[in-house]
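From the shared-data thread, chain only:
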Amino acid sequence: MDKLINYQKPAEARLFALLLTFSGGFIDAFTYIKCGRTMAAAQTGNIIFLSAALANHNFLGVVDRLGSLIAFIIGLAMVSILHAHLKTDYWRVVCLLPILIVGAIIGLLPDDFPDYIMVPAVSFGLAMQSAAFSKIEGLGYNSVFTSGSVKKAAVAWSEYYFHHDRTQRTVALNYFTIVVCFTIGAIISAQLLPFFRMKTIWIATFLILVTDSSYYLQLFKSKQRRIK
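Structure, as tokens:
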């Protein structure tokens, strides 16, 4: 358990990073499949789909992707605002509340709920999640898309095997597990969606709730130990 929980820096704990990344992959796959190939977090893909929608004069496609992109940017900015103005060590706990609320509500919605409303709401929440929890054991990562982690894992493994840099082994393992968790989350989401429909998102929402609660408790215990 000590390898999964960082008692000195709880926000960088492997356990929280893996749970959030699994949830990020899960929710991104959910919106991609359910909402006409619109991604809630992978904005590189959305920009490509936005360009294609423009070329094909697909107005709704443009609205969906542009809404997701704008909401994601606003979510990132909101984390900076909260961090600057919330005079508490628990600001990251607050940053996970939007995706928890959005996920809980989406599970209650009908299947034909408009994508142009649902996806931006999810994008906003995931952006706040990714900005609030952005490190695993001191290494920068992203919990809601994985292309950067794939690159970093490949580079670290190459440095370890070909240049015998032993310090890169742990780096490579961290990024590799991040990629695996994101992939597994996306696969499970795709498999469950036909059966549970909108309620599928509750699985990821529950895991984020577990992460947020555990982080809060771990941070509280750390503060209590420092006081003693």
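The radius of gyration is 18 Å.
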